[in-house]
Amino acid sequence: MLNALGLLKERRFLPLFATQFLGAFNDNLFKTSMVLFATYEIFNDPGKESNFNALATGLGILPFFLLSALSGQLADTTDKARIIRLVKLAEIGIMLVGAGGLVLARAGHGQLGMGLMLGAVLLLGVHSTFFGPIKYAILPQALREDEVLAGTGLVEAGTYLAILSGTVLAGWINTDVAAVAVLLVAVVGFFTGRMVPSAPREGAELKINFNPLTSSWRLISATLHIPRLFLAICAISFFWTIGSVLIIIFPPLVKNVLTADERVASLTIAIFSVGVAIGSVVINTMLKGKVSAKYAPASVLMMGAFVVLFSLIARSWTPAAPGHFYGVAEFLAQPRAVGILLVLLAIAITGGMFVVPLYAFLTTTVTKDQTARTVAANNVVNSGAMTLGAAAVLIITGFGVKPEDMLFLVAAMCLYSAWLAQKLHRACD
């Protein structure tokens, strides 16, 4: 068996990995540039900042809820490589819209610019909806059975390293440079997508149902009757609900609690991405290629404990002088800065260790001609759960709950995720 990194030398895997990496990088470069611009240059109120982040998150998730069933059907009845090429071509047009929004907002046309940027977020959600099932469903076709967990771990690790790169870059360049960068990366991604080997339909041709409501219901009904899939999807959905809450509250928390600038905000998100990537690789090593939920309950319990610790450290943080934000050097010079970053890294590592084996369950439980629809069903349930998470942030923020207090909600959700993971472990291992 090839070791995980050995797959990166393989023509059957490398183009897909590169295309996914560039797509995740570009998506996060654009979205982080938009969120940081809105947080630090447009709004001056923690509630409005959280509400804008929740709106952007909701728009990005909505297409997953409406179109995942269609995307799964198309991926299981069409050459997956062909869909990748069409999706990457569409990304160039989407980034033209988003780049225009960034430039206009920076030039002072705030409402028009924000409208275009939010429109691009919605379209990027559509883009990811159609690409998402493919990046996992293509693995059982391209790889041997004993390579699927390693391939899944590499895709996850690459995704979070891409998030890291895009997030860090967004904090260090202005919006004009970001506008040019997202267009260039979209073009490069189009060419790498053209190198993905053909992955034709396996099994009987499907009659596609284009009704988003009935197709979603049938898709979920056809998937969730399998006990281990039901438990895996529920656990993944809870994890991404936790993720959506963290994504929404982190920029306001960094700005208003840690009193740090946008570069520090991008640094904290980047460290989170590194941690998930590390966790993805570590869990593959611990499980030795076996698809198992053995370590999932303990991983998410540790994640919850680190979230509580993060909240406690944040409460004892010494804020910057009024009207001033810590830069990276000033932030790192604070006595508790290293502790903040290490705890954040631990949250991410344990999160990665929790979720990666669960995705491997999705692609190894069903036959190869059903994998895309299974991933799509997971995306429908995930998007609904994440939408509830975003709505919960809006409601809780409306009651005046602070970001550092909201972290306790995240910790409580980790307890429920551990219970689901333990049920999965007992059902399958």
UniProtKB/TrEMBL annotation:
InterPro entries referenced in this protein's UniProt entry, alphabetically: MFS, MFS_trans_sf
Keywords on record: Cell membrane, Membrane, Transmembrane, Transmembrane helix, Transport
Q: Which Pfam families match?
A: MFS_1 (PF07690)
Lineage top rank: taxon: Bacteria
Molecular function GO labels: transmembrane transporter activity
**What CDD domains would the database entry show?**
MFS_MefA_like (cd06173)
What coarse category fits the chief subcellular location reported for this protein? membrane
Residue ranges spanning the membrane: these are 54-74, 86-108, 114-136, 178-197, 229-252, 264-283, 295-317, 337-360, 380-400, 406-422
**Where in or outside the cell is it found?**
Cell membrane
Please report the record's description of how this protein sits within the membrane.
Answer: Multi-pass membrane protein
Which protein is depicted? Answer: MFS transporter
